[in-house]
């Protein structure tokens, strides 16, 4: 039987609209992937930022639940949303096939920088991933990214990590020069699951795994 629904659910990072997953989507095929669309990012709700992280998690859970045993692939901020979604799906008796996180320390180590002003957020983005603003197609879009990032970080500060133990495998990958993670901090994602766990480090910064030629085959190997 041919697959009629995507296998991979992609969770973008703070301020992102999913562009960081383009290399993975190009490799896996667009019919195999579905971008999780956070409230306020797309359609008629564009620019109307959610008030709580629960709104984001509930919306993302509904989107992921529409896929049969999805593989959740998540970057940075998206890793914490995807983890909560995985917990929700597990509690419903429909756990994901696996959870793959990039550029994110384990939930119990989450620390959100106290940035608030546009200038502070811009500096944070430039320090974390210099491409985030440099690739913005216009000054207006740059402001959208900054404003969206500020709200995502605000929401993330209110996160209480779910206590549900996952049953699915979990894998964590980071860039060796990522200032937001360490090998030790991603290794603690093992606490999130009773299933198998793997970690991997590639050369580069915060978003390096997503751009690495190693990433697509590494993802598919986690699902074998």
From TrEMBL:
Protein name in UniProt:
Thioesterase
Please name the Gene3D superfamilies in this protein's record: alpha/beta hydrolase (3.40.50.1820)
Q: Which PANTHER family match?
A: S-ACYL FATTY ACID SYNTHASE THIOESTERASE, MEDIUM CHAIN, THIOESTERASE
The Swiss-Prot or TrEMBL record describes its family as follows:
Belongs to the thioesterase family.
Domain of life, per UniProt, equals: Bacteria
Show the InterPro entries listed in the entry.
AB_hydrolase_fold (IPR029058), TEII (IPR012223), Thioesterase (IPR001031)
The record places domain Thioesterase at 10-210
What is an example of a Pfam family matching this protein? Thioesterase
Which GO annotations describe the biological process of this protein? Answer: lipid biosynthetic process
């Amino acid at each position: 039987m041919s697959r009629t629904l995507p296998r991979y659910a992609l969770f973008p990072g703070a301020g992102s609209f999913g562009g960081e997953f383009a290399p993975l989507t190009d490799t896996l095929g667009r019919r195999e992937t579905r971008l999780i669309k956070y409230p306020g990012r797309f359609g008629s709700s564009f620019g109307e930022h959610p008030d709580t992280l629960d709104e984001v998690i509930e919306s993302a859970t509904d989107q992921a639940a529409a896929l049969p045993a999805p593989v959740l692939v998540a970057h940075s901020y998206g890793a914490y949303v995807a983890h909560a979604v995985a917990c929700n799906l597990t509690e419903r008796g429909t756990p994901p096939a696996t959870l793959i996180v990039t550029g994110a320390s384990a939930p119990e180590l989450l620390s959100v920088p106290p940035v608030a002003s546009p200038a502070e957020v811009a500096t944070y983005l430039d320090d974390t991933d210099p491409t985030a603003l440099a690739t913005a197609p216009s000054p207006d879009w740059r402001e959208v990214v900054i404003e969206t990032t500020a709200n995502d970080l605000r929401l993330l500060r209110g996160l209480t990590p779910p206590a549900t133990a996952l049953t699915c495998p979990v894998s964590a990958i980071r860039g060796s020069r990522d200032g937001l993670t360490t090998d030790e901090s991603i290794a603690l994602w093992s606490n999130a699951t009773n299933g198998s766990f793997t970690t991997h480090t590639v050369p580069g910064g915060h978003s390096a795994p997503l751009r690495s030629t190693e990433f697509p085959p590494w993802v598919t190997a986690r699902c074998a």
